[in-house]
Amino acid sequence: MTKFSARIEEVSISGIREVFEAAGEDAINLGLGQPDFPTPDHVREAAIDAIEAGKCDGYTSNKGTESLREALHEKYERDYDLAIDPGDFVATAGGSEALHIAMEAHVDPGEEVIFPDPGFVSYDALTHIAGGTPKPVPLRDDLTMDPTAVEEAITEDTAAFVVNSPANPTGAVQSPDDMREFARIADEHDVLCISDEVYEHIVFEGEHRSPLEFDERGNVVVVGACSKSYSMTGWRLGWITGPTDRVERMLRAHQYGQACATAASQYAAEAALSGPQDAVDEMVAAFEERRDVLLDGLEDMGLQCPTPKGAFYAMPSVPEGWTDAVIDRGVVVVPGAAFGDHGAGSARISYAVNVETLKEALEVMDEATAAVR
Ligand SMILES: Cc1ncc(COP(=O)(O)O)c(C=O)c1O
Predict the structure, then answer these.
(1) 3-state DSSP call for residue 368?
(2) CB atoms near residue 207 (< 10 Å)
(3) Any idea which fold 41-274 has?
(4) How distant, in Å, are the alpha carbons of 90, 112, 151 from that of 109?
(5) pLDDT tens digits, 340-368
(6) CA neighbor of 102 nearest in space, from 86, 121, 126
(7) Looking at residue 18, what is its pLDDT?
(8) Dist CA 168 CA 350 (whole Å)
(9) Atom of ligand 1 at shortest distance to CA of 98?
(10) How far, rounded to the nearest angstrom, does the alpha carbon of residue 272 sit from its chain's CA centroid?
């Protein structure tokens, strides 16, 4: 008798955490995947008011409060011109749980899940946890995922493919044409497209569109979250939406794993989604300024980096030994190999720090670059 499931033995704790542990306490951390801004005041206050009014003491409906799902309905109408029934949302514990229940509801043991390489670490891990087989696909030179590469990777065992735009760890933004193609591929091959859109609002160039807008046969589900757009990573509030039959299956995984998302966070999310959006615009403007500072610095060092068009990450190609040399000098960056085999030879730099700190970090990177060349 084995002590642990084979599925869980396939998964290890993220390589990103190991990097943090290796860095000293005073290190400048460019490894974090969360905005460095406070959650907007009106969002915090909505949660406090809900708690004080006694609205957070019991379970909510499994799918989430009616008023949050109404706010989500309005958000998709406003942002995508999509009329989604409020009954077709499940509020989840962040985008993470949304990804988890999407996999649990759609992937049978041995089935394949296609996702970008380098890509967000959860895609590989959650595929294993669902008993599936990961099928990472390499990216184009601009670090977007080529729909043709996805189509070629589809076999009769494919259950799903994951699209992530804007992307972690690359900052790449897929074009509207790509998104249309992903929807076509899902429909034509009858496989599920899981579109991870947790960075949907953090776009500097190009346009974020969702494959859901182009879906004709109900083969797209969308993962969203308040985490990045409203600087609410600690609130653990995301959602999933898609066709009613898929939502109903994902709800089964959610109901038994989670019961419902945290009530106070649901009230906070409702305020974030339906209140003023200025905080989002301010954050995006700050990220864009930092991106430009970072790109200039990397160029001065002679490091090649496709221009990230969204999120708050850049992924330059780096010389052998660079990441260790940077970390040893007190700046945390994540080795690209933590995001998949094709991430080797690059590093992920998160610019969720102020410009002054970023400039300090760039000086350190410059020294490290000179040392390893
Ligand atoms: C691409 C991507 N998807 C999903 C998530 C999960 O987000 P959440 O904090 O809402 O669980 C993250 C977090 O880093 C992410 O980068």
Answers:
(1) helix
(2) 11
(3) Aspartate Aminotransferase; domain 2 (3.40.640)
(4) 24, 9, 21
(5) 999 999 999 999 999 999 999 999 999 99
(6) 126
(7) 72
(8) 10
(9) 11
(10) 18
Average pLDDT rounded to a whole number, residues 100-125: 98
Residue 1 pLDDT: 64
* Pocket residues: Cβ below 6 A from ligand 1: 33, 94-96, 120, 164, 168, 196, 198, 225, 227, 233, 238
The single residue listed with the structure tokens 């992903």 is 182
Give the model confidence (pLDDT) of 273-283 as tens digits.
Answer: 999 999 999 99
Predicted confidence (pLDDT) at residue 202 exceeds the cutoff of 70: yes
Q: Identify whether the C-beta of residue 107 lies closer than 8 Å to the C-beta of residue 130.
A: yes
Q: E strand or H helix at 223, and its extent?
A: strand 220-225
C-alpha angle 86-91-93 in degrees, rounded to nearest 5: 170
6-39+278-372 and 41-274: same fold?
no
CA distance 34 to 230: 10
CA of 215 relative to ligand 1 center, distance in Å: 23
